Request: fold
Amino acid sequence: MTTGTTLPHLEARAVLFDLDGTLVDTLPDLHVAVCATLTEIGRPIVTQETTRAYIGKGLRVLIRRLLAGSLAATDGEDTPQHVQALAAFRTHYARENGCHSHPYPGVVDGLRALKARGLALGVVTNKPDVFIAPLLEKTGLSGFFDVLVGGDTLPRIKPDPMPVVWACGRLGALPKETLFVGDSLNDALAARAAGCPVFLLPYGYNEDQDVRHLDCDAIIAAISDIEPHLRTVGRP
Ligand SMILES: O=C(O)COP(=O)(O)O
Ligand SMILES: [Mg+2]
Reply:
């Protein structure tokens, strides 16, 4: 793993981005929707730091963790209360999505620079599909991406490599020519298993862990740090 000025130079045709915690700081929206959901089902609200720790493995796991009050609660059967909480969250988040969220510093400039170089760009997120386009629209990021893969596009989500491999295929690029940029273990595992080089950002949500301990090719400070370090193979 390298940081700062010692970033590796990569040859790339395409760049895939995680969404929550990488391109957009969505925690404020998610937290308002989490608290509204807990209130609706008669549970005490949680702190924003708890919501931050529970984000990452998709909506179903977020709800499981909230109802169990534990980061470890990732598997199991859905009870009627899970089903009720999931439905409530979808309603509340549809209202809040994009209202209090902002792209991180360097995102717009960084995406513009990559686009100007002719690279194909995509998003691979565990966020449910229905929320992706409205969020990109409200945060001024729609129009940059050639493919969007969400939490229900395919049978598997990150950390499985399936959505990453599929997105590479849609962009006409081999995984080894596609840089994956994310903020979490789910991203690093999915991208590595797919065969992509991986850059991670330290400012996002990584289920309470420090990304600096993860297997990646570089930790970068901002999306605008990427373009100077890419050699373009050519647009597919
Ligand atoms: O919805 C989540 O759990 C996380 O979404 P992400 O994959 O964009 O970080
Ligand atoms: Mg993320």
The chain has a mean pLDDT of 94. Residues 27-96 form a domain with the DNA polymerase; domain 1 fold (CATH 1.10.150). Residues 18, 20-22, 182-184, 204-205 surround magnesium ion (ligand 2) (CB under 6 Å).
